[in-house]
Amino acid sequence: MHALRRLWHDTAGGLPATFWYLWAGLLINRAGAFAMLFLSLYLTDVRGASIGLAGTVVGAYGAGGAAGVLLGGVLADRWGRRSTLLAAHLSTVALMVALAFSQHLLLIAVLSALVGVVHSMPSPAFVAAIVDVVPAERRSRAFNLQFWAFNLGMAVASLLAGVLAEASFTALFLVDAGATLTAAAVIGWKVPETLRPADSAPATHASLRPRRPGGLHTALTDRTFLVFVGLTFVLAVLTMQTSTIMPLAMRADGLGPSAYGLVVALGGALIVIGQLFVPRLIDRHRKDVVLAASTALLALGFGVLVAADELAVYLGAAAVWTIGSMLAAPPNAQINADLAPPQLRARYQAVFYLTFPAAAFVAPTLGGVSLQHLGDRHWLLVGGLGLAAAVGHLIAGPPRERHVAALRREQTPSAAPHDPRHGKAPTTALRS
């Protein structure tokens, strides 16, 4: 028990109260976000939609998600983190209630696309708020706990969704709305606005360096950042194999849905149990080295599937790639935070989060063709892609760190000249 308390103190100690309310809001949000997991079944079983139409509606939800990420990033930098989070959560509540009682397929499709928008809007705001309130030296632990909360919430959602869907799809949407409303209440009650006026307004004092131009264009033309986003995209494509291509490969090996469920459950259990140990493993190492090692583990885990034909091999491979994902989460988020100028923090988060819907499209589209034509050799291609990304992290790491150091210097005020009339140098507030 003493060892567990010490582990928790080392992992979570020193984090501000606002972070924990954000963390609680995220956990509640994810634990209750289960209605859309069963959207395709709801459309076909309850509303009589064809499989093709159901796929189109689910695709509309995904397209809405891509738009929502960008919208959330812009609004979080303009309105503020708290305002964006509340607007997204309360809009989700209204849309979920509407979905619960909607019967026309066209209306359901429109509502699903809008839910995709408001479901994705909070992501940049959540992370930007965490960066706002957590000191730089504690951010790695904060992001580790954020990843843990996200996966713990998803595990709870997966368990609850099946039970509720068996009882009533209407209840599924309404309970989802209730959980989202609870998360909004926590944020509205306990989370102050973390965006400082200095971060959303241009600096004017002569002693400060001029700001870089604001807007999404800055993030989309930042080469160092885009290299990092590209490497993260590869990581996301690898991770998406578990929910897109692996089930097909397991079916080809004669393994049924229950076997696939065991593999997914193992990954979730490892994250929930082991994520708290990650900071101790990675804190002493450079972030680019950690990301290279984690991506190599993903490559190894998926590459092993070239010889998999039994459940035991899939389970062992799942353990390897899950550990890789666990190690990657904190440095990935921390590098993203380091590369973003304070006044564009949420916009950078939005561009970063676009990698996941993009990977959700690319992984099944190209992966299905690859599996069909290459068979088990598809996994050698996936493994090779992962190893190339691991090398890319090692190459990109040192210049990225120099870029981050230059950004920090830009955010530091120039030394003010000595004022002989007052016998000391005047002081100015840093806007960063």
Helices and strands, with pairings:
Blueprint: H1 2-12, H2 17-32, H3 39-45, H4 51-78, H5 81-101, H6 105-120, H7 122-133, H8 139-167, H9 169-190, H10 197-200, H11 216-220, H12 223-244, H13 246-252, H14 257-274, H15 278-282, H16 287-303, H17 311-339, H18 345-353, H19 355-374, H20 378-410
List keywords for this structure.
mainly alpha; globular; 432 residues
Measured on Cα atoms, how large is the radius of gyration? Answer: 23 Å
Instruction: Work out the helix count.
Output: 20
CATH superfamily of the largest domain: MFS general substrate transporter like domains
Query: How many distinct folded domains?
Result: 2
Please give the alpha-carbon distance between the first and last residues. Answer: 42 Å
* Number of strand elements: 0
Strand content: under 5%
Structural class: mainly alpha
At CATH level 3, the topology of the largest domain is Growth Hormone, Chain: A
Mean pLDDT score: 81
Low-confidence residue ranges:
201-211, 414-432
**What helical percentage do the residues reach?**
over 70%
Biggest sheet details: none
What's the order of the H and E elements?
A: HHHHHHHHHHHHHHHHHHHH
Please identify the top-level CATH class of the largest domain: Mainly Alpha
CATH architecture designation of the largest domain: Up-down Bundle
What is the 3D form?
globular
